Amino acid sequence: MIYVHAAPSSMISIGAAPSNRIDVRAAPSNMISVRSAPSNKIPVRAAPSNKIYVRAAPSNMISVRAALLPAFVYRSKLPDIPITNQIPLHTYCFENISQYPEKPCLITGSNGRIYSYYETHLNCQKTSVGLSKLGIRKGDVIMLLLQNCPEFVFSFLGASMLGAVSTTANPFYTQAEIFKQIKASKTKLIITQSQYVKKLQADDSGENAPRIGKDFIVVTVDDPPENCLRFSTLLDADEKEIPSVSIQPENAVLLPYSSGTTGPPKGTILTHKSLTSSIAQQVDGENPNLYLKSSDVVLCALPLFHIYAIHIVLLCSLRAGAGVLLMPKFNNTILMQLIQRYRVSVAPVVPPLVRALVKNPKVGSFDLSSIRAVLSGAAPLGKELEDAFKSRFPQAVVGQGYGMTEAGPVLAMSLALAKQSFPSKSGSCGTVVRNAELKVIDIDTGLTLGHNQSGEICIRGPQIMRGDIGFVDEDEEVFIIDRIKEMIKFRGFQVAPAELEAVLSSHPLVADAAVVA
């Protein structure tokens, strides 16, 4: 049987069997298309006047380029696993709750309030009923305009139970940015803090601006201003009154917006299936790629409105039965106090936070020995900075992950963080996740590149991602250099700002660095 699968624009791959592949390549300016042909011939048009016929053979791999080049398609060193992705996200996350109902689930760093797994699940159910009584139905969108707090979790998973969709927004956005997302996502209800309500109040000059009470409902987690409701009214609902809703794996559950580093933020639809699949790739199986124990306390200093925190910190922790320490906003000293007080064992971080800990002279005044694992993501963590962090926290395993909002989101993860770990190089973000394939192509020609050659990273699987520059070394570890759109072109050379920034930041007198052109 002959099959055709998607590939870069200048390549069509035709395989005679799943383990074989045929690559037909053309110059960048040519468009390649597959046209009908006699039963065992597939003509591939490389130019209007030129036809290439490739004969399919049952047991052969056939290549126009003589099939002499290695494929350089990479898979995880961990075996693929069966993935349970046919159940709703909330059901999947709380599937094992009967094993630890009284265990701490959410720890509020600002006031010390602790919610057990039983209480967390119950409050999600109550919030679901409360949202239903306010008119939220399957497919409707609610906005979470919140700092890290338990109500974020109750609202997100409560909406999931209704088949509704949550869109997350940065509370520090301008009014114009928030209104743009409200209109684009067709938000019907917003859950926020009272200090941000002013950003939701359109002035008289904005005739087309959405308005509180008319276009959307506002619920605040603290004392509500005029025309707003208090979140506690949602929790007054009877959890037994949750509407019966049929939720399909392909139904949307989360509508995060991309980072917007190379343009305006863009909405990304994530389904129940895509999120459960991505969580499973990290924490399920006998040897999970990201090993979280039910005894772990996972730091949530990263904002939950960002996909990194909502996926890795919140959802993966819930699936594993770990506790989540919620920190409303970052403060270096308070961070170290909380790590010491609650014995944080797993710390998902970003490079600026790593830099702050490495260069902070007060670190030695706190007992941070409970940290056993540190995961860095959202931007490349340079080798020099990673090595400096390891020397300061020698008891901790340090690894990086790589992903993007549009891809669900994790694409590669350090195997140093696995239950049965593998050695991982500093600066590497690990290998491609399980149940997926990765390769690197030349951004100009579309040709597949080999080891240690920088090009565009492509993923094959349920989601295909493109847009970052990186390479895979001889040990099949992925290294991210920079985003394609951030590359500086100088006298015909591609210069990665992140590499220069890493060199500058390695100097002990440099706190941070930014390279522009």
From TrEMBL:
Q: Which UniProt keywords apply?
A: Ligase
Q: Which InterPro entries match?
A: AMP-bd_C_sf, AMP-binding_CS, AMP-dep_synth/lig_dom, ANL_N_sf
User: AMP-dependent synthetase/ligase domain: which residues?
Assistant: 95-467
Asked if the Swiss-Prot or TrEMBL record annotates the protein with the keyword Endoplasmic reticulum, the reply is no
Matching entries from Pfam families are given as: AMP-binding
GO terms for molecular function, please?
4-coumarate-CoA ligase activity
Similarity comment text for this entry: Belongs to the ATP-dependent AMP-binding enzyme family.
Could you tell me what this protein is called? AMP-dependent synthetase/ligase domain-containing protein
- Natural source organism: Papaver somniferum (Opium poppy)
